[in-house]
Amino acid sequence: MFNENSIVAKVWADAVLKGDKELSEVPNLYNLIAIVTIIVEGGENNV
Q1: What domain range includes position 14?
Q2: For residues 22 and 45, what is the distance between their CA atoms, to the nearest angstrom?
Q3: N or C: which end of the chain has fewer CB within 10 A?
């Protein structure tokens, strides 16, 4: 459902990268955790 271009995934990844949220706080909603993890592991250039 979500991909690297999804607004929701980008917002969560940005929050994790900034340190506002932890990866463990990402909601278990469809594939959101997996996509946020991919973005975060790819670095800030993906956001």
Answers
A1: 7-46
A2: 19
A3: N
The tally of domains found in the chain comes to 1
Q: What is the pLDDT of residues 15-28, one digit of tens each?
A: 999 999 999 999 99
Radius of gyration, alpha carbons of the chain: 9
Which pair of tokens denotes residue 11?
């917002």
Q: Is residue 1 part of a domain?
A: no
Q: What pTM does this model have?
A: 0.87
pLDDT at 43: 62
Cβ(34)–Cβ(28) below 8 Å: no
Q: Give domain status of residue 31, yes or no.
A: yes
